[in-house]
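From the methods appendix. Each design record in this collection lists the tokenized structure first, followed by the designed amino acid sequence. Records were kept in a plain field format so they could be parsed without special tools. The example shown here is representative of the layout used throughout.

RECORD:
FOLD TOKENS (131 positions):
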């Protein structure tokens, strides 16, 4: 099994609803996103997937959130834009994009750094299509 990871970052503001503490106030982060995919089979060139294709996906997703107030972007109008929710939503968005590539790979995880020392990793559910 192979894992490939690409990294991208974006800057955005958020505030946590129903939370007592610093993060209930409007503030921003330079979020770092690490998208990891996995798969078993390499193509004729010897690649699981082209890094360029993965980078394009993570860039496209980060562009949706860059320089935005996350609380105003669905689904964060309804759920809190916590690192945990952000990681899961980005994993879902990435899975849709990766499906379009038509390769035998899937999202393994999305890690979000909201600061240099604080990160959250969402592990995708394993639904291997092995028959
Ligand atoms: Zn925050």
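DESIGN:
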């Amino acid at each position: 099994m192979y894992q490939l990871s690409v990294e991208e970052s974006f800057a955005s503001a958020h505030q946590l609803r129903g939370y007592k503490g610093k993060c209930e106030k409007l503030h921003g982060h330079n979020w770092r996103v690490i998208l990891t995919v996995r798969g078993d089979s390499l193509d004729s060139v010897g690649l699981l997937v082209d890094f360029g294709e993965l980078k394009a996906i993570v860039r496209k997703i980060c562009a949706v959130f860059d320089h935005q107030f996350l609380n105003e972007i669905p689904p964060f109008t309804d759920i809190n834009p916590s690192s945990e929710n952000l990681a899961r939503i980005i994993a879902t968005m990435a899975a849709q994009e990766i499906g379009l590539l038509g390769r035998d790979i899937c999202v393994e995880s999305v890690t979000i750094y909201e600061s240099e020392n604080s990160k959250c990793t969402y592990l995708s559910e394993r639904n291997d299509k092995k028959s």
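APPENDIX NOTE: The pocket of zinc ion is lined by residues 14, 23, 27, 29, 114 (CB under 6 Å).
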